[in-house]
Amino acid sequence: MKNTTILHTANEFVSKGDNESFLSYCTPQTKWVFVGDRILNGKDEVRAYMKEFYKEPPVFNVEKTIEEGDFVTVTGEIRLKSKTGKYEHFDYCDIWRFEDGKIAELKAFVIQKP
């Protein structure tokens, strides 16, 4: 399977609220870098992040996907429900790195829309 297909398949689980199935597509030592915000090391930290911020499944609108070797870059919009129950809207650019068909790293640039 191409890395793009793997990523979009994994993200379908996130859209359905099935974070554990998504995490099965990640390496045990997966690293997520949210530029200017935080760094998550390993599945346990990613799991805790998802539990905190994905109270309800996020809504993605993928605009572009570019695959080159072990990297997949995705741009688009995401909506997340805040702790107050209102949706917040963001633009994002994610750069995903794969190892042996698994998600090894994410570098995410996320900007909240006014």
TrEMBL record:
InterPro entries: NTF2-like_dom_sf, SnoaL-like
Pfam families: SnoaL_2
Record's protein name: Ketosteroid isomerase-like protein
Organism: Sphingobacterium zeae
Top-level taxonomic group: Bacteria
Domain SnoaL-like: 12-105
